[in-house]
């Protein structure tokens, strides 16, 4: 490949609206272009990387015995009604109508479609187990698309679904997928951790997430320093013996309305005073107690009262006002109690606190399934009052917990019979009796992985691709200000030779000066750079530099090939 013929469009400037390094670098390198919020074009450069990830995922899925198929993105409402998810999925479901006014959604996931396939395709236990997968564009109308392709609305996912006659067989199939995922992330050259995850409302026994470890990750992971225990923090909290003392004490205090100072509240919640004072805190407990801390209120005291006693400072709000104020979709609020008129407009940070402290149940409104800091802004305050903190005893009793941040790149799930039951997906067993199948589902965020890899591997000059993800392994750069044909020929020859050896090589024949040329190659993160110049040619050497190396070195052809092979 010649860079002169490859549409490369790099920029020096950091785009103003890019909040994380991967987004900045992907835009600067010209890998992606934004079309609309959370919707991106993958340029020829970006697509090369995306396809690398896809290729490894596909190889390992095939190796694990999964069968590739391709299901439709556009899915009829009726099917989603059968599982109840047309409503339950909430605001993330993009609903569309055709010219006959029939309703569809753009698939955010494919349990419904694949189970529909299974109920018509599979009829005998002899056809089981079977695992089918696809690599396909998904659409989720994320409440806050951000971080470029990391939390996009349109994104590429590999989703696999397995069907089994028995739970034991499901558990084995699940393990096969778990092992395949481990190989995938190892092959991609990423530092990652598999953690236990909550199987949540869907039910089922086991669920694990794969996280790429990076400080910018949206998720918090707890792992034991003394054992293999690792879980996402929600799961770790569920396993914790109870709220940690400050949270418990805070709850006890708010359940007993009393005059309290801001300092007390700050101390109880373990928060810096300024933060508390700046926020409006709403904490509901079973006694329907609201605790309001108003930083903008010129009071250094906390008003605590039973709801009916709320004073004139706090006016009732409608559900619409709350939705607008929180900047969330109506789907995130509910069920609203009959007393909705007594709901108080709260600062969004505080709603997060209330949600956390009271287990998502303040009288009047209820935020369901919200991941704060992701679906709603300002995560710090919530993180500060978690009931699992560094140094807690690990739930398995071995060692203490440490916390780190991760980016969820994969998720494996034993669904059990939930979907098969609601869609009536059965097969006949050995005795000719109909049995509801057991299902597993297994997702990988193919496009998210590209960004996650950059979050983990970059420096001031740009991206540093793990080799298996790089758009090219080697860049051959021509420095030839005098237009010496011998230099150009030597570079062409080396490029050809490397290609013939199966090493993906790009020839930088754009005729740039060394400074801008090297800056581009570093920004693009190409693992190996070879410079062909008149001086090197005269000395019989090439200038070689690995992307992470401090300095370049002069190597003769044999030594160079040795290095690159
Ligand atoms: P998250 O918790 O980050 O919202 P999720 O748990 O909703 O992800 P899953 O339903 O488990 O996502 O989907 C499988 C995989 O798809 C995830 O592990 C993630 O890698 C990827 N993914 C999910 N949502 C997005 C998104 N908005 N943009 C890019 N990738 C995504
Ligand atoms: Mg999600
Ligand atoms: Mg998740
Ligand atoms: Mg998930």
Descriptive overview:
This protein has 565 residues and is an alpha+beta fold. The chain folds into 3 domains: 16-237 and 403-454, 2-Layer Sandwich (BirA Bifunctional Protein, domain 2); 252-386, Alpha-Beta Complex (YbaK protein), CATH 3.90.960.10; 472-564, Anticodon-binding domain (Rossmann fold), CATH 3.40.50.800. The strands form 7 sheets. Strands 3, 7, 8, 9, 10, 11, 12, 16 and 19 form a 9-stranded mixed β-sheet that branches. Strand 11 and strand 12 (230-232) form a beta hairpin. Helix 2 crosses helix 6 and helix 8 (245-255) runs antiparallel to helix 9 (262-269). The radius of gyration is 28 Å and the shape is elongated. The two termini are 18 Å apart. The model is unreliable at 245-262, 268-319, 325-329, 331-367 and 369-385 (pLDDT under 50). The structure holds adenosine-5'-triphosphate and magnesium ion (3 copies). One magnesium ion is lined by residues 209, 408, 411.
